[in-house]
Amino acid sequence: MPIYATTQNRARLGPTCAELGLESSTHVAAHTDKTAFSMCVPEIAAALAEGGPREAVIVGIEAHICVTQTTMDLLARGHKVYVLADGVSSCNPEEVPIALRRLAAEGAVVTTSEGFLYECMGDAGIEEFRAMAGLVKESKEGTREVLQTLCKM
Hints:
This protein is an alpha/beta fold. It has helices at residues 10-13, 42-49, 63-76, 95-106, 113-121, 129-138, 140-152; strands spanning 3-8, 28-34, 55-61, 80-89, 109-111. Helices cover 46% and strands 22% of the residues. β3 (55-61), α3 and β4 form a beta-alpha-beta unit.
């Protein structure tokens, strides 16, 4: 699955966190700096237009700003967009559920990382199932904490 990533105004806000491993990943199709709130800047739009995927999975910071504007732009371009509820945040946590409800109403599929992984696998009989099930177990507590916080809002 190719990764398309952006960093919001690196000069003023700093680089994307190193823990994501974007600099060393062989799956990164495009990674660019931007000042626009949507990540559908010319470099990313060009990469997507060159036969990029028609489905997009969105994670990111500021659910009500960058995540929302990116999702809206991708939907307008005809993409099927999945927004992972436990993969988005905001400096104002109350913004997250409002943004997620709006995006669902606009046509995005709002789901969880676990739900998305199992939807992609589709069958426990596939070769990758054990590794994915292990990943889900590994991240279970963190996912639970995020979802409990979201459900309180």
